[in-house]
Amino acid sequence: MTVNEAKEKLKEAPEGTFLVRDSSHSDYLLTISVKTSAGPTNLRIEYQDGKFRLDSIICVKSKLKQFDSVVHLIDYYVQMCKDKQTGPEAPRNGTVHLYLTKPLYPSAPSLQHLCRLTIHRCTAAVWGLPLPTRLKDYLEEYKFQSSSMSHPSRGAGRCRPRPPRRRKTEIPGKQQGTATTATTPRTLCVPLSPERG
């Protein structure tokens, strides 16, 4: 998901709605995108020496808490100020208040549904695939598919795999699609180094 895609998804969301996505900067792995009173904002997650922390301006970066996993990082900041502030506050003094109230997606999509989406992006000829009838029926159950996808005479589309992204640091056992939930408004105030791309 790109910066612009995240911005579009959060544009109409309530303040405090957030998501975690791949960072578009090659030096970072993940980014938190969150809807603030000033609009969608992006905050990179830094990985260094086996620990995760939020990216920030140099003078406060060393003071930020570090975590063993991204899930622990997000959960900490969601819980940190839950009893302090519950309403929006306008940005001031170079800081932005991030109200992490709920994830945009309350749960990760199932692997089988992600596979179905990939197949639909790669071919329009579902019934021409060497798959059992039961799986073909499942592929056609997706209500947002194009009407041309199920007809074997329409031909297959071309699937263009994404080129591999360059990373300076590889993390063993990195988990994808983990969702973090929060039930009450919480706040996080961090001087940002905003992500531009």
TrEMBL record:
GO-annotated cellular components = cytoplasm; phosphatidylinositol 3-kinase complex
* Keyword match Phosphoprotein: yes
Q: What is this protein called?
A: Suppressor of cytokine signaling 2
Q: Which domain of life is it from?
A: Eukaryota
Q: Where is this region: Disordered?
A: 148-197
Q: What is its main location?
A: cytoplasm
All residue ranges annotated as the SOCS box domain in the record: 99-145
